[in-house]
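Much of what follows relies on a compact textual record of a protein's fold. A record is reproduced here so that you can trace the correspondence yourselves:
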Amino acid sequence: MMGFGGLAGAQSMHILSVPAAAAAAVILFSGLFHLFIYDRDRRHRQNLTFALTCVVFSLYGIACAGLYNSTSVAEGMAWQRAQMYLLFLSMIFFLWFVHDFTQMVPPKALWFFTIVGVVCLSVGYLYTGDLILSLSRPLIKTKNLPFGITAVYYEAELGPVMLAANLAGLICMAYILFVGFRFYKVGPKKKARFLALALFIMFSCVTSDIFVSLGMSPLPYTLEYGFLAITAFMTGYAVDQVVKASFAQEQLKQNEERYQVLADNAGFTMWTADLDLRLTHISPSIETLTGFTPEEALAMGFDEILTPESASLGMTVLKTQQALELENPGRSPGSVQFEVQIKRKNGPPFWAENTGAFLRDGSGVPIGVVGLTRDISSQKAAEEERLFIQRAVESSSDAIAMCDADFVHFYHNEAFANLFGYRWPKDLVEAGGLLSIFADPRQGDEAATGLIEQGSWTGEVMTRSNRGRHILTDLRANVVSDKFGNLLGLIGIYTDITEKIAVTKALKGSEERYRLVAENTNDVIWTTDLNLKWTYVSPSVFRMRGYTPEEVLQQDFSEVLTRESTQDVLHIFTEELEKELTDPEPEPRSIVLDMEFLKRDGGTVWSESACSFMRDDDGQVFGILGISRDITERRKAEEDRLKLEERLQQAQKLEAMGTLAGGVAHDFNNLLMGIQGNLSLMLLKLEPSNPLYGRIKNIEQHIKNATGLTRQLLGFARSGKYQVTAANLNDLVSRTSSMFGRTRKEIRIKENLQADAWPVEVDHGQIEQVLLNLLVNAWQAMSGGGIIYIRSENVVLDQRFASSYGIPPGKYVRLSVTDTGSGMSPEVRKRVFDPFFTTKEISRGTGLGLASAYGIIQNHGGVINVYSQEGQGATFNIYLPASSKDVMEEIEPEAKVVHGTETILLIDDEEVIITTGEEILRALGYQVFVARSPHEALEIFRDQAPKIDLVIMDMIMPEMQGIELYDHLTEIRPDVRVLLSSGYSLNGQASSIIEKGCDGFIQKPFNLEELSQKIREILD
């Protein structure tokens, strides 16, 4: 066989080839075993590198068996060259195995010897001839083996290149022995022993083969059997580790349940990770700590759980520990602690303390990391608080000193040193301690007694510095104890008030003068800081708001003003303060605000407040000064004035439009009267069976409809009531709503009428028209159907409510009509009673309905108003004055023509009315005088007064008004009977004439039946 010195060969070596081949087979099987172990657990790379080494060892054994079976010199030389290549490969792979097994081969050494091995292989492959193997020596050698066996083999002499390569191999072998020796000293003993035995066998075999190569040993070459022994020892170690791992797995399985309970209920979070810090397990407490479930945490990277700075710190700690492990395998510190910031699923990161250590396999090699994480947010906060307090004490402008539990001074800040002159605590201790700074020892004793008895003491004390300077200070001293009440020490805070007292005395006189002014003025003087916190309020606030100054100083700004005023004032003050702070040279100025203050009794009071910013000696704004004067009565008077102006403007607008509407209605009624008169005459001459009779009656119906429109106009124009009688409003409501409900099946009307409703004096037709207008308005507001609620009730209006509408207080009947429709916007609600204003389509309304309802109710001495919000329907309320008269039962007159024979004087300035009227009266059987002007009428009446039984006169005529004409008629004949006829309604002059004794009123246009019955009603 061949070591690093040569190659053995023979012509008949079949017996020796058998153990070499057997050894190769065993080594190959061991390599496969190590490869299997590596496949099961890839954390231990030494199993892979040793498996590769075993493959090379096995190939070397096969090369030896081939050499023993070679039958020619050429064949033997080929196997010898193959052995050389395999020896260098075995050196490279065995070195890598030792590196993985011990973790003690530095990367530089590893790569150096690897490159050397590769160079040796390359040289052996590229060069041939005597440089590699020299044939100058005999090729055949004979060895006598035990049991009488003789071995004859070939051996070529090594060339100079191969000698140099073998020397490099010996150096590599020596380095491997050095690493093994170091590992034996510092590594795990059992693991080191296995490696030491393997290296000892290799060293022995190499040494033996060197002696055989030099001819100094009768033994054959044994390296292939040394490879077998190395393989056996390392395989034995691997088996031992597999057995231990199986035993550990069983132990782990037995403890798994207890570990799981501990991990699930621990106050900290337990976790494991691989050497790349990828989490492999984490306890459920992670969800309490961070909000992430264990599954979410395992799916996250290390840098996703920690803040970037903490993730970087964690990697640095791991690398440091790995470096220590390389320097001292198995002997690095057991654990390491460091603080990190961990992210929360919902919330800011928090501070935690990590305690980590390596997880190791059975041989002590790190295979991962195990750690405990504990929330230390509260500790960090406490530490930060402690540091903050320490820095606050050190930077405080007040002099602060501390004593321990034995009253020995041990600390004071820089302000204390500057004030009293003692630079270091020991200086004050040597001078007699803290009591020595009291100018009057009795004050020191008083403070000490107060501390002992009460735990604190506050007062003004005269102190002195180490130079004898007297300093008046405000001392605040307290005892410091732990949570169990044990005394820890004392702390004293000294504030130099020498200058403050002097300034205070100087200001006291001026403050007294200002106080007298503030306390005796009706205006409220107040100051605030820049956060609008009250700093002073004069006593006059009690007269304005009912609160004492002390109470106001405890109130928030929003508790003093109404919400609207608070918002306005905050906005204005913020803007003004920004101007003050940004203007490089601000000029003193003031602003005047109207502010609504809250009173103790729940009311409010308006004030006019003059406000300005207050500045210190450096010109810096530090507060606000205000003087507030009660302007409630002034505002109320102003509001009343504006309301009256608005009401006056509305009234003037309505009056102007009413005058126009009334004139139009009057003239239109006169036109209708001419048409109606002619129709009545035609009907007198036609039989009902005549085809034209129906058409004429149809025209009459259209005239009635047109009359309804003129009544709407006259109602809006407030041009009077037609016929006023005491009525039960409920009867009018029921009749109108019943009629309306029958024609509107998509709505429901619900009535809630007070049974004993007071009577009201109204024109039935007009009130029914108002109700109908309100019902139509409600129906149109509910396009998809709905409910209309009608309610009546007796109410007594007080002076406050009544005066707001310009009506007298007293008894009223309120009628409310509520719909469930779309409601009104504030803009629509403001104009809802304006004439010709409508939100409906042109075909659905004229805009006169609500306007005429407003005029009619006003003309009846009542009130109509509306309450509505968009999307919440609307409620119209009508207030009609209650009457003491009894309700008279209505009797419907019979619709027939009544004739007569008396003499009638007809007075009108319209020719068409004179013509048709005369003809109608004559057709009814009366004798008729006609007059086309008041003067003509008086002339006729003077001549024919005894003959004239009735005067029918227009109310509005040129030359003379109706009331004046009536007076002249009654002067001529006081018992004259007069029937007023007008296109206007019963209002104004007509009402005055009726009150004077006029016998009746009929509104144009009227038909034959109405006129005939009215005449007979007066004459009979």
About this structure: The chain has six domains: 14-243, 266-380, 401-496, 509-630, 729-881, 903-1019. The mean pLDDT is 80. The radius of gyration is 61 Å. The chain is about 50% helix and 20% strand.
